[in-house]
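Lab notebook, bench 4. Still working through the backlog of constructs that have no structural model yet. Next entry is a single chain of 605 residues. Request: give me the structure tokens for it.
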Amino acid sequence: MICIRQRAARFRHGLLFAILVISSANLTYSATAPDVSFSPATLDFKYLVGNALPAAQTLQIKSTGTALDYTLLVTGTAPNYMGQWLSLSAASGTTPGTVKVYVNPFGLPSGNYSASIVVNAPKANTTSVIYSVTLEVGDPAPLLSVTTPDPGGSILFAFVTDGAVPAHKSMSVMSIGGALSASIALSGGTWLKATPTGNIALVGLPSAVDVSVDPTGLTPGSYSGKIVVSSTTASNKAITVPVTLTVSAGKPVVSSVWPMGALVNTATNVTLTITGSYFYPTSTATLGGKGFAVTYISPTTLMGTITPDLMANSGKQQVVVSTPTAASSSTDPTMFWVYPPGPQILSVANTASYTVNTISPGGIVTIYGINLGPAATPPALVTVFPGTDPIPTTLPAAGGTSVTIDGSPAPILYTSPTQVSCIVPYAVSAKVKTPAITVNLVVNYVSASQPQAVTVVAADPGVFTTDASGAGQGAVLNINSTTGNMTVNSATSPATKGSAVAIYITGFGTTQCVDGTAPNLCNPAATEANLVSGVVTPVLPVSVAIDGITAQLVGAGYQAPVGSVPGVLQINATVPAGVTARNTVPVVVTVGGFTSQGKVTMAVK
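Model written out:
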């Protein structure tokens, strides 16, 4: 009995142990039931409107224990479009599993969106788990936009050098999609202008940029520049606008040539200066339709070489200048004369002032030309005091040069092949009229020249200058009131205020003897061919201005300088006290309302 009881007790004990073990095993299994996990922990998509769709992302679905079957469902909440923008590559699977997650934000306004992937795993400890997906939709970076006035996003200008500067053009710059800070920069040359340049603010409305060109100094050709509009925050960063300026040559203009001609069969080259406008390094020239070499000096000057073959026949030949790209060649009637044998007059000038083609009775003029006389002769010798020695009207006496003005012979002072100096006959005073009358001047040497038209006026005062240029330091002498001695006025020997000076002129018109003049000092019957010295009184009133202040004349005021010829007058005047001391004090002589040339000066201390 005891053994049976003991065995029974042992059986019950073992059964209890087994029950405890089984119960313990059941408790352990319940605590480690599988569950769903995810990698990565979250999914976030970013999208800029207008760009490509975001790439798909991979979601890994795992379990913490045994494999689990699962299903997937996409849900969303308003206003997030119920997750319609979210899609999956699979709707179910078994852990561990993967699924591709796609988003299609096309058409969504900018903003933040969220949707849920619901994972249902019936055998999981948590049978339904929600996995969140976020989407950020943003507007793109603002876009630079430029509108140009010409096709192809460019700006085109055309300029002809004898025309008007091209009109300004306008291009517009704006931002699309937001505000921008942009800059405008130019390159290609200083001829390109734009306003504004530098930094500008763009807030969506078009901003006008004024574009212009300054073609000053540009030679014909094509010029390229750029306008660069840039912004570091714009999606397209920069826009380059090409600007082209096409410069075409204007029609050349020939206004004059020098010399105006040469003798037929001239054996040496003649250098020709062509003056005009719209000349370029590519310009060429013809004489009578035949080309000759030219060198570009400036837009207004060409230097050419006339070869002997172009001077084989006498006559007038037109000078024509042409330039590539110009609409046409010059059409100005500017001629180079191939003179026949005999004297040819180019111009007649006041010997002191060099005013051209105006003469007055008794004035000294210089005739410039070609073949005017024999080799240079000494100036005519003239008696110091009145007498009967005439100034020759032909120089030299045998086979020399003679000049007639309005038919009257002119006393000749000097002759050479290119210059003749003479005195205008007093006889032309009969032609002094208002308005002025034109008469003819003719040079005779071997044969008669062509007539040269000159205008007769009552007076044509010209002040002599020390360098015979017609300008600068005048031929003025300082007079010592005590000794009567004279010194040449200059920067090193200036006149003092209040002192007397002698000023020398020509072109003062007819003269007269004043009552009471000593007979040996004035010859009422004198002509321009005889010396008149001593007291010489012009018929017309004479005045002197020094530094713009009227100067008082000294004594009689006038006299023919000793050793001079008719036509030269010495005027003695007092330097006004109000003159500003300097080396370039202006001196102007007025005779009967006619004034001397400008830019004649004297020195005053």
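Notes after review: Confidence is low (pLDDT under 50) at residues 1-30, 380-388, 530-534. The chain has six domains: 1-30, 36-138, 143-248, 253-339, 344-456, 462-604. Flag for follow-up if needed.
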